[in-house]
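Predict the 3D structure for this chain.
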Amino acid sequence: MPSLFRFLVFFGLLGGLAYVAVFSLATFVKYQPREITVNIPQDQFLKHQR
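Done. Predicted structure below.
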């Protein structure tokens, strides 16, 4: 039983650290949206139409 408890505590701490890492990234990293333009050549565009 102590090994099961140790296993659960280990994965609980590991999950807690992952949660804190994701939360801190979402909170402290500022996202700056930007516009993206992709040019598709006309011959590639017409190739898929039948």
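The chain has a mean pLDDT of 87.
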